[in-house]
């Protein structure tokens, strides 16, 4: 016989999803209404405003895509790029590589700026590349590389792009809500994020925001957006238009209740306070890990507070430690990804998970397991 699925609760200290608070789970359980119900349209409007707050933007086109962060990435690429466009793509980890893949799949040309994993995107290299390719249409990079725990200088990179009138496409899946991010001030044209990292909502939604320039680029396209579902000119009419929303697809109604609640929680705490909390707790974690003799992969200046890549000590069995943490302590940490597989652990302190008590649990559990 089949029975209901009742997972054992875990402390989620990996690269996402992070722990979803009872408030957000409670919102998820409220009655489903129609996606064109006036009540729901009111909720969508509030989500737009709350996302504008979280992104620090006034962008009119700021929405929650009904799909995970990867779809947010594709949405930016397929809407803003056309075949043969030149795009400078920065790769310093797994997610930069995905940007390149995505750029090439629309028939655009990726000009790659590569940096060592665990180091930030080199502003100097990007400056040289822009000077060599002033005809590039866009610059795409990952703000917070979750595969390595590295923060790149989004502000300087966007300033450079502005000098060449180049669009900026930024992956903020892990940075939104966890570290300083200012879309308007930094001049970001297209940005995408995810619900399950520092917003601590359920997975499957991607907040996206386009500047007026990005929207204009979309309107001026010579070719149709190659994906019907991700065509944001169609999605725009679903997320806006006074009283005349047109059906595009059925939004994940209850997941949007959850997103709304997670954004209300962020607003109540205050965005800058949330950034501060992540930084503070990262310091606590760092101190505790140094007592255990565990070192970080990334230089202090570029470390992400919400994603801590640490080097697995010699003679330690990676998989066994993670399995013991999970089975004995109900604690999940992330494995290394790509070329860092088997070399690093990724300890997430994202959103709701970023709490003193979780750090204490992890440190005690690690001490026990490594002994
Ligand atoms: C998690 C993540 C993604 C992908 O998001 P999904 O919701 O898993 O599709 C993209 N970029 C970065 C930097 C991420 O951390």
Automatic annotation (TrEMBL):
Pfam families membership: Aminotran_5 (PF00266)
Organism this protein belongs to: Pseudoalteromonas luteoviolacea DSM 6061
GO molecular function: alanine-glyoxylate transaminase activity; L-serine-pyruvate transaminase activity
Binding positions (substrate): 346
Domain Aminotransferase class V stretches: 32-337
Keywords: Aminotransferase, Pyridoxal phosphate, Transferase
Cofactor(s) needed for function: pyridoxal 5'-phosphate
Family stated for the protein in its record: Belongs to the class-V pyridoxal-phosphate-dependent aminotransferase family.
Modified residues (N6-(pyridoxal phosphate)lysine): 197
UniProt xrefs under InterPro entries: Aminotrans_V_dom (IPR000192), Aminotrans_V_PyrdxlP_BS (IPR020578), PyrdxlP-dep_Trfase (IPR015424), PyrdxlP-dep_Trfase_major (IPR015421), PyrdxlP-dep_Trfase_small (IPR015422), SP_NH2Trfase/AEP_transaminase (IPR024169)
Name of the protein in question: Aminotransferase class V domain-containing protein
GO biological process: glycine biosynthetic process, by transamination of glyoxylate
């Amino acid at each position: 016989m089949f029975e209901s699925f009742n997972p054992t609760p875990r402390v989620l200290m990996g690269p996402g999803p992070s722990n979803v608070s009872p408030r957000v789970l409670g919102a998820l359980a409220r009655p489903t209404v129609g996606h064109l119900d006036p009540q729901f349209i009111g909720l969508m409007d509030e989500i737009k405003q709350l996302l504008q707050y979280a992104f620090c933007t006034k962008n009119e086109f700021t929405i929650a895509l009904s799909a995970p962060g990867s779809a947010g990435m594709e949405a930016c690429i397929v809407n803003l790029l056309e075949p043969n466009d030149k795009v400078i793509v920065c790769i310093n980890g797994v997610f930069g590589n995905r940007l390149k893949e995505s750029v090439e799949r629309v028939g655009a040309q990726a000009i790659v700026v590569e940096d060592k994993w665990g180091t930030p995107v080199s502003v100097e290299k990007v400056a040289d590349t822009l000077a060599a390719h002033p005809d590039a249409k866009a610059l795409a990079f990952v703000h917070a590389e979750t595969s390595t725990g590295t923060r790149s200088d989004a502000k300087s990179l966007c300033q450079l792009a502005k000098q060449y009138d180049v669009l900026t496409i930024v992956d903020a899946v892990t940075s939104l809500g966890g570290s300083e991010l200012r879309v308007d001030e930094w001049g970001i044209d297209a940005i995408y994020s995810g619900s399950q990292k520092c917003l601590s909502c359920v997975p499957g939604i991607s907040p996206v925001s386009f500047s007026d320039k990005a929207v204009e680029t979309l309107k001026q396209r010579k070719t149709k957006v190659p994906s019907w579902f991700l065509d944001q000119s169609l999605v725009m009419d679903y997320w806006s238009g006074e009283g005349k929303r047109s059906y595009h697809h059925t939004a994940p109604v209850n997941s949007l209740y959850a997103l709304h609640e997670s954004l209300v929680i962020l607003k109540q705490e205050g965005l800058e306070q949330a950034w501060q909390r992540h930084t503070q707790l990262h310091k606590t974690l760092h101190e505790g890990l140094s007592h255990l003799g565990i070192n970080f992969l990334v230089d202090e200046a570029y470390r992400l507070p919400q994603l801590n890549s640490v080097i697995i000590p010699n003679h330690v069995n990676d998989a066994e430690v993670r399995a013991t943490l999970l089975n004995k302590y109900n604690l999940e940490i992330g494995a290394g990804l790509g070329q860092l597989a088997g070399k690093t652990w990724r300890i997430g302190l994202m959103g709701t998970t970023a709490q003193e008590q979780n750090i204490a649990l992890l440190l005690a559990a690690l001490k026990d397991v490594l002994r």
